[in-house]
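Why show two proteins at once? Because comparison is the fastest way to build intuition. When a single record is shown, students tend to memorize it. When two are placed side by side, the eye starts asking what differs. So, the first record is below.
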Amino acid sequence: MYSTAILLQTCNMTLANSRAESDWRRTADAAQCRGYYEEPIIDSGNKIQASADSAVHIEGESTTLKGNVVLTQENQQLNANFLTIEATTEIYTAEGKTQLRQPGVLLTGERITGSLLNDTAVIDSAGFLLHKNRIRGSAMKISKSKNSLSPPL
């Protein structure tokens, strides 16, 4: 059984220590709740780009990135403290303050497992922010497919 909590933005809501804090822009306009969510632009092209404090690549087996990991492809970005990608399946596991961004959506969690080939992911202890709708919330797990988000069945 999975539960999902959705918090709607109100004008007096505090954003401190939330996944939304980094995307919130303050304004003096009271009609806009004195701010709005602004999503960063991500465009790295078709190639996968990666950076980290350290990396270990074992040919034909896996690649492991540690510390300040940033992985981008097209309009998606994955941030984590630790990331392992299996070479043959391109299945990845990201851990530690993870963030997965794509247009209009910010997903956060403690662990993300997914497929680079199929553009899927499962986020554990998940949080989400839908920029355009100004909605944020949390769930035990969120599944992401190429074109949708949902709690797993």
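Second record. Ask yourself what differs from the first in the token line.
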Amino acid sequence: MGCITLDLTSLQEINEKEGHEGGDLAIRSFSDILLAAGEPLMKAGGNAAAKDDVQHRGCFIGRNGGNKFLVIIRSCTGQKLENYLKSVQQQAEELNKTRTVRLTYTAGSALAAGSGAASLTALVALSDHLAMQSQEQNQEQIQGQDQELLQES
């Protein structure tokens, strides 16, 4: 089993610049991206009906409150996680070509095998922790770039 936690990091900026209607649209757009990226995973064992049967899907994709989203993939491999995240990235880049305020996000992913996570709850907590680390690293990079720009001025 694999888990991905995604944080829509630009939601606050979108709400400030485009209002809550813009924020709601951003959430819906990001949700659509996550669902489209998961389309190949939705079918369990090639069963076309599984897409509509929650108990037999190959994955679960949902909003976990606020700006957080959760993806849980059955029979997961590192390659499936990587492919999913690449698809999300490509679709977000495409959408951002048409947006005033870019959709930005961080993601953390974890596989149950070898992670030491003894339960689904522990796996979700691990992927959430990794998403927060990713966000902190992005903030440090941005702050470092800002410092470089100030020094160049």
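One difference worth noting in the second protein: Helices lie at 11-42, 78-96, 120-152.
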